[in-house]
What we know:
Blueprint: E1 4-10, E2 24-25, E3 28-29, H1 30-40, E4 46-50, H2 53-61, E5 66-68, H3 76-87, E6 94-97, H4 107-120, E7 124-129, E8 143-146, E9 156-162, E10 173-183, H5 184-191, H6 197-202, H7 206-211, E11 216-220, H8 231-244
Parallel strand pairs: 1-4, 1-6, 4-5, 7-11
Antiparallel strand pairs: 2-3, 6-10, 7-10, 8-9, 8-10, 9-11
Amino acid sequence: xxKTIILIPSRLAATRLPNKPLLKxxxxxxxxxxxxxxxxxxxxxxxVATGDEQIFNEVNNNGGDSILTNNDHKTGTDRxxxxxxxxxxxxxxxxxxxxxxxxxxxxxxxKNLNNKIINKKSDIATLACKxxxxxxxxxxxxxxxxxxxxxxxxTSKAKYFSREASSDNITxxxxxxxxxxxKVSTLEKFVNLKQTKNEISQKLExxxxxxxxxxIDVVLAKTSPIGVDTNEDxxxxxxxxxxxx
Length: 245
């Protein structure tokens, strides 16, 4: 049976919302909300990967598992690779990189990603959802353009990722969700590649894979998660989650 683990990179030094992982909703920190969601997916072991002792202690003191990494990683991908190495486990085949600032992520989407990608034996995979008309020209929304149309039964390889899109060229364009699933051997290869011009100019790490001929399979998600990037985002999600509770 294929073994998958979930790693959640997390750090305190977010420029737009400092100490974001420790903010509370319903008395539980955002990072622990995400951890609990990941555990409830019942895919495999879950660990928070962080360079901050406050986050490490917050997770561990609430019954979770956390791995303390170096604090100077440039990307979350570098952080999860160090965490994987510290586990010293030879039987892990896939790693899901789950964002630590999306406490409302749909668990069924994560399960679906895991199941489809194990069957396809993909190198890298990610999620995307249907894009709204008003999101197409919004450069804060990352778009993925796929080779084929996505459906609940059909995945497709990504042609390109971009923050920009033209309103008259919207064939097979989707709202990208920044959750990744890596084959361990591909992750090791990826973190040792140099940043590419496209990656640097677009500030999109996944372009490094495409620029080095590593394909990325895209799976359609049922829902679009709401990330916490600003204080306004936090207040909105806090209101939603407290109402639903």
